[in-house]
Design a protein that fits this description.
Blueprint: H1 3-11, H2 15-31, H3 40-54, H4 63-73
């Protein structure tokens, strides 16, 4: 099925059906275990951040603390 045809069918779905479809598509992508290609600017930024981390130039915050702060902020 071509992209335009697929989009036409998707537009007929309810919001709930669209969300379930997105979840299924996302799960299928995750199962492929492929790493998406990065742009050069993304690679440079990752290298810069890693370098700063290795130099001790950034404050490291545990993921659980970040999640807790986000939950509290958006209650």
């Amino acid at each position: 099925m071509k992209s335009a045809e697929l989009l036409k069918e998707i537009k007929k779905l309810s919001l709930a059906e669209k969300l379930l479809l997105v979840e299924d598509v996302w799960d299928s992508i995750a199962q492929e275990n492929e790493v998406p290609p990065l742009h050069e600017w993304q690679k440079r930024e990752l290298d810069r951040r890693l370098s700063e981390y290795q130099k001790g130039g950034v404050e490291v915050i545990e993921a659980s603390k970040v999640y807790e702060d986000l939950r509290n902020r958006y209650k």
